[in-house]
Amino acid sequence: MKEPIIAGIDAGSSSVKTVIARVNDDKLEVIGIGESESEGIIKGIVVNIEAAANAIEKSVNQAEHMAGIQASDVIATIGGEHIKGKNSKGVIGVNNKNKEVTSLEIERVLESAKNILMPQDREIIETIEQEYSLDEQDEIKNPIGMSGTRLETRVHIITGLKYVSDNLKRTLNKMGFSGKDFIVNVRGSAEAVLTKDEKDLGVVVFDIGHSTTSLMVFLEGTVWHTAVIPIGSYHITNDISKGLRITIPAAEKLKCDYGYAFIDMIGEREIIEVPTASGKFKTIPKITLTEIIQPRVEEILHLCGKELAKMKYIDSLSAGMVFTGGGALLPGLTDLAKAYQTAVKGSIPISARIGVPDQIAGIRDIANNPAYSSVIGILMMSLDEATLMNIQSGKKFSDKKFKFKNPFSKNPFTEFFK
User: Fold this and answer.
1) 193-355: same fold as 5-81+163-192+357-404?
2) Residue 126: DSSP 8-state
3) Which Pfam family is one of this chain's hits (predicted)?
4) 60 three-class SS
């Protein structure tokens, strides 16, 4: 029997990442990766279907070439500032003959919980179970098989704009993919980088992308809050460009080569070279670069902290904070986060770490790269049928068929605070 093959796409604002993996003993073995420069996608939203399809094609081609396998369908992330989370409740009577909770009662009570008021231009992307109550018994994780008369559930519902998912689906359709299986990017990232203990104790994951920063709070093992902040790593690059009067590409390279988030960790005598518009170089203290970077990172922390404070979650995050996404590659990020937490709260810093998708086999280049957390995470979720049943469609992911091919043949298919 052939080992199952799955493929995922993360189409972000700066790049499109594709990962093809083999399922081996319920674990992922990455056999192909591809990454292309993003086109036609702004702030995680497709604004030009033709351009976005071309960018996705390049990324998929690279992954297929490496894997020697042609993907006939994919799982894809969806993200952007339009993504919102909301907690909801549902309740039904258990009215079957034996007063026993079955999968039918679970389906009915979840439908009851999904009956929320929202604008006509929004849709439910995912419904995540939190807990159940049966008569007088609370905090039940799985009530199937139990007896009772009144079943209640608490869920976390993630919604998004319909036109965003419609345009992403149309883009994938142009590639010959169904475009029916979407998972919110920060949900995938959380799956890839968080441990079970962290989710149980209480943790927040920050996925710092190109144009946005997404956050997701886990308490008692499940999701309780989702939000998106409209600032990402590009804003840091733009600040460097304006502050030093250099081009965006030069600013991005400077950030990647010498960027640091926390001034306290920089030696005052360190000197770096900066390209000028004339093509020559000038020297500046490295601390000058950090003086540009740190305020923007603090703004991201501040806005994320305000989001957490609104929901009064900060004191519940015993496992602290986990940073991931491409923006988490910035050195000094966790040091600044802990120092900032102390400054605004006057308490002992909660823990902070960088989350990477290291629970995979195969190609190791991406195992320590937080930029791949989201796409790896959605593939990990595809291994968990119970999780996939919560996707809006209410159906399992369809069985994906893959064709082995000559990797050199022509491919047919033409990104706590105050």
Assistant:
1) yes
2) E
3) SHS2_FTSA
4) helix
Contact 12, 46 (CB under 8 A): no
Give the start-end residues of each E strand in 108-171. 122-134, 137-140, 150-161
Nearest to 300 by CA among 253, 358, 261: 261
pTM, two decimals, is: 0.89
Backbone angles phi, psi at 259, to 5 degrees: -65, 145
∠ CA 42-46-47, rounded to 5°: 75
Among 3, 14, 4, 36, which residue's Cα sits nearest to residue 325?
14
CATH class of domain segment(s) 193-355: alpha beta
Contact indicator for 147, 99 with CB cutoff of 8 Å: yes
- How does DSSP classify residue 39? -
If the chain, 418 residues long, is cut into consecutive pieces of 10 residues, what is the mean pLDDT of each piece?
A: 82 95 84 95 95 96 93 91 97 93 96 96 96 94 95 98 96 91 95 96 97 96 96 98 96 96 87 88 94 97 90 84 97 93 62 90 80 95 56 36 36 36
Q: Provide Rg for the chain, Cα atoms.
A: 23
49 burial class (0-12, 13-18, 19+ CB within 10 angstroms)?
middle
Please give the CATH topology (third level) of the domain spanning 5-81+163-192+357-404: Nucleotidyltransferase; domain 5 (3.30.420)
β-strands 150-161, 281-285 pairing = unpaired
Question: Do the Cβ atoms of 222 and 156 come closer than 8 Å?
Answer: yes
- Amino acid identity at 238: N
Q: Tell me which amino acid residue 113 is.
A: A
CATH code, residues 84-161: 3.30.1490.110
3-state SS class at 77: strand
Start-to-end CA span in the chain (Å): 55
Residue pointed to by tokens 């810093």: 349
Assess contact for 123 and 200: CB atoms under 8 A. Answer: no
Domain boundaries, the chain: 5-81+163-192+357-404, 84-161, 193-355
Q: Which residue has the tokens 């590659």?
A: 329
